[in-house]
Design goal:
Blueprint: H1 2-25, H2 29-44, E1 46-55, E2 60-66, H3 72-76, H4 85-92, E3 96-98, H5 110-115, E4 122-128, E5 134-143, H6 150-217, H7 221-252, E6 260-263, H8 264-271, H9 277-281, E7 285-289, E8 296-299, H10 301-317, E9 324-332, E10 335-342, H11 376-386, E11 390-394, E12 402-409
Parallel strand pairs: 7-9
Antiparallel strand pairs: 1-2, 1-5, 3-4, 4-5, 6-8, 9-10, 10-12, 11-12
The structure holds adenosine-5'-diphosphate.
Length: 414
């Protein structure tokens, strides 16, 4: 006898483990509910099973799944916690067996009428979440042979608990998916806005710059110096707009990628990044160390130039007058590293990764002296990654300078 029970127990346990596996891997609420009721009816050998879930706002129960088809009226009619069998199960937070529903005043026979079914007995158990708080009720209806046993109650209770956790997890998962979708729609709106605004700003600015240059040609020296200030401000504005426009590369992703094999050493040499006007104006010394032999990389050259230009302008921006900037290319195994070292303001360890997030700037925009929108590094990292590389920063600490590394895979001879 004992042996028979042990065997039965092992079989049920194996089935529960399988059920738990399925419940954990299903992320679609409807499929999950259908699976639970079919397992509930089969495990307890009953004619039907139903699930009612609690609406946390109204604190009313709703039929969400049943072996019998849930008709419109049944689905829409909420089941109150007071004066209903399911409500009693949920409130007591423990199993309830009603051997003869017709004799129970809490029984609502409208449900039977709506679905053309005859309910005789109900075994109801609470479905609980991880915190053991009831979130719904699982009902097994009309035992097919004999009457409900203790084992039926235990089995249904375990199933309901597994189901409660799974349903809540799935609900959270769907909420998360919805929130994620909303966020990406908002992100897209912001991206569209930046793209439209930068395009629209570019045209009038080009006209302004054209006129200033024209006026400057015929101006006397006092006027020329004033116009130079205007031109300088307009150039800064053009750089900001350019930074916004660079986002188009990132948002278009792989589709705009125009790969070609280029010599990284030659790219840096021809960009003449050691002859920057701003660095000259700040009396900074820009040194450049290039290897003698070429280093071939397969990249989108326009994107690469945006990245290198950005790293250089940051090094200049965040290094005080008279500071030093060193640009070098190193070969590391199957990669070429483009390194920008400055002896400027440095970066604290907790900011080393944050600076690559869009719009993140270490200094508050209200007090910072440097221009910029906090987009450059985020764009640069995306562009480097689009080209299968990595971009990161290192710094010994504040006021101790920093080094930015752009690592790109070398195109090696086959
Ligand atoms: P922006 O330069 O427009 O502020 P970036 O995305 O290029 O935006 O850089 C983000 C932030 O990272 C900067 O605001 C600055 O705080 C920090 N940063 C970037 N480059 C350096 C650098 N070379 N030295 C110190 N801090 C830097």
């Amino acid at each position: 006898m004992n042996n028979r029970f042990t065997k039965l127990g092992a079989a049920r346990l194996a089935r529960m483990v399988e059920i738990s596996r399925v419940l954990n891997s299903t992320t679609n609420v409807e499929r999950l509910l259908t699976y639970i009721i079919s397992e509930a009816a089969s495990l307890t050998d009953t004619e039907a099973a139903s699930i009612l879930l609690l609406d946390p706002r109204t604190r009313q129960l709703h039929f969400v799944a049943s072996s019998n088809e849930i008709t419109g009226q049944m689905a829409d009619t909420p089941v109150p916690l007071d004066g209903s069998i399911a409500g009693a199960v949920l409130r007591a937070n423990k199993p309830l067996y009603i051997p003869d529903v017709s004799a129970d005043p809490r029984w609502n026979q409208n449900v039977d009428e709506a679905i053309d079914f005859k309910t005789s007995e109900i075994l109801g158990v609470p479905m609980r979440n991880v915190d053991r708080v009831p979130v719904g009720v699982l009902e097994a209806i009309n035992k097919q042979n004999g009457s409900f046993s203790r084992q039926d109650v235990e089995t249904l209770t375990i199933l309901a608990d597994l189901a409660g956790v799974a349903v809540e997890k799935t609900r959270l998962f769907e909420e998360l998916k919805r929130a994620n979708k909303e966020l990406s729609e908002l992100d897209q709106l912001k991206t569209d806005f930046i793209s439209i605004a930068s395009h629209e700003l570019r045209t009038p600015l080009a006209v302004i710059m054209g006129y200033i240059s024209f006026l400057r040609e015929g101006a006397d020296s006092e006027m020329a110096s004033q116009l130079d200030s205007v031109l300088h401000a307009a150039t800064q504005m053009r750089n900001l707009i350019q930074e916004m426009l660079n986002m188009r590369y990132v948002d278009a992703g792989q589709t705009t990628l125009q790969l070609s094999t280029v010599d990284l050493v030659e790219v840096v040499r021809t960009m003449a990044i050691d002859a920057d006007e701003t660095a000259t104006a700040k009396q900074q010394q820009v040194s450049i160390e290039l290897p003698d032999s070429p280093l071939a990389v397969s990249v989108d050259q326009d994107m690469l130039e945006v990245v290198l230009g950005n790293l250089l302008s940051n090094a200049i921006k965040f290094t005080p007058e008279g500071g030093h900037i060193n640009i070098r290319i190193e070969r590391h195994s199957e990669e070429a590293w483009c390194c920008f070292t400055d002896d400027g303001i440095g970066i604290s360890p907790d900011n080393l990764d944050r600076i690559f997030k869009r719009f993140y700037q270490i200094e508050s925009p209200l007090i910072r002296r440097q221009g910029g929108m906090g987009l450059g590094l985020a764009i640069a990292r995306d562009l480097v990654e689009l080209n299968k590389g990595r971009l990161w920063a290192e710094s010994p600490g504040l006021e101790k300078g920093s080094t930015f590394y752009a690592a790109l895979p070398l195109k090696l001879e086959a």
